[in-house]
Design brief:
alpha+beta, 6-stranded mixed β-barrel, 6-stranded mixed sheet
């Protein structure tokens, strides 16, 4: 699970999805934490031939990812809709049947299988657009023990964090939770970033790993997972374990407001560069984002998405599970973050979520591990569209 993101959001609006082939302009603003008050658009069934680029796509990796994640539908109430917003996208039992068929035929032609078992739906009457961004798994230097340059801790999830279900106290608040702790017999908000930076968690043995760069730790929290390169040459994979419950703030907006970075130059890379070049001010700026992410060590392949399986570069998408079923299939048509590159038109799997991934048309594409993936992820911010697939009723 990705707690939130803070890359760059494009300030553009495209009239139709076919225009998404255009690369995003350089002029950007920080990604917003989006809220949706208007009714969601309707779904319209379309033929696979109507999906831009479908004939050229090879969905083998997407179908392989689907086989790994789709078991989650069998653990849910069979007749409940897989989407909280669009019942048209099928019941859990329908998805479970498609999952069983996919696992029973591992050597089937992937495109033929998808066409036989699924129906694509266009979101909106004219292929409505939404924001698509990217994320990745950073690689950073660090150590399991404190020493030398490694002075910045990343913490395990503290045992004193309490989750309160507000619906248990007021039916109008059903589905809402808050995180906090007990202090002098009162339930209070958990320590925010500035308090943690001043040592609020010290002395509890919560330090999971020590990093050489404070800014690297901040961006690891943004991505929600990463690989730590240890002094002996080995690698330690860490993943999201929880958060402190404080509201997320995109510091890019503050850097623009202060004049530190010009709006037209805003990107993940620009934020990272400014923080690294201004160590005396960096912590104060990072403290504006009061949210803190906690980590755990992940053994084996990774990173692990919200659906509980390792992500696949270019084929795993973070979505808002209020709309797109987590574990389901999605076909995207979005601009490539690199100029003069063909648009990204392919089948992906909804395998992850994020605190800033909100709305009926919203996606965050996983690009992989390391700096090269980070370059693409940091520059991906554009309007595009997706088509949601639903299993055919049998």
């Amino acid at each position: 699970m990705r707690p939130f993101i803070i890359l760059a959001a494009a300030a553009l609006a495209l009239a139709a999805c076919s225009d998404a082939a255009k690369p995003p302009p350089k002029t950007t603003t920080p990604k917003p934490t989006e809220t949706q008050s208007a009714p969601p658009p309707d779904l319209r069934p379309v033929a696979f031939s109507a999906l831009p680029g479908w004939s050229a796509d090879n969905p083998a990796i997407a179908l392989q990812q689907f086989r790994g994640v789709c078991k989650r539908f069998g653990r849910k109430s069979a007749n409940d809709p897989a989407s909280k917003t669009w019942p048209t996208l099928g019941r859990n039992v329908d998805w479970a049947a498609a999952c069983a068929a996919a696992k029973a035929a591992p050597n089937t032609d992937p495109k033929a299988f998808v066409e036989a078992w699924f129906q694509p739906y266009q979101v909106g009457a004219t292929a409505s657009t939404g924001l698509f961004t990217g994320y990745y798994e950073p690689e950073v230097a660090g150590s399991r023990t404190r020493g030398g340059a490694n002075q910045t801790p990343l913490y395990r999830k503290p045992a004193d964090i309490i989750s309160a279900d507000l619906g248990a106290f007021n039916a109008d608040l059903k589905g809402k939770t808050v995180l906090g702790r007990i202090e002098n017999g009162r339930f209070v908000p958990y320590h925010e970033r500035a308090e943690v930076a001043r040592g609020a968690l010290q002395g509890q043995g919560l330090e999971l790993v020590w990093l050489a760069e404070p800014v690297a730790g901040f961006f690891l929290e943004i991505q929600g997972s990463g690989v730590v390169k240890l002094p002996d040459g080995s690698r330690m994979r860490i993943g999201y374990a929880g958060k402190n419950g404080r509201p997320y703030r995109a510091i890019g907006r503050d850097l623009i407001a202060s004049g530190a970075i010009q709006r037209q130059d805003m990107s993940m890379q620009a934020i990272r560069s400014w923080l690294a070049s201004n160590p005396g001010q960096a912590q104060d700026v990072m403290n504006l984002n009061r949210s803190v992410v906690f980590f755990r060590e992940v053994k084996g392949r990774g990173p692990i998405g919200a659906a509980g399986v390792p992500l696949a570069a270019g084929r795993s998408l973070a979505i808002d599970p209020k709309y797109a079923p987590l574990g389901g299939l999605v076909y995207i048509d979005v601009p490539h973050p690199e100029p003069n590159q063909a648009p990204i038109r392919r089948l992906v799997v909804a395998e992850d979520t994020g605190g800033a991934i909100k709305g009926p048309i919203r996606g965050d594409l996983f690009w992989g591990t390391g700096d090269a993936a980070g370059e693409k992820a940091g520059r991906m911010a554009a309007q595009g569209c997706y088509y949601l697939l639903a299993p055919k009723r049998r």
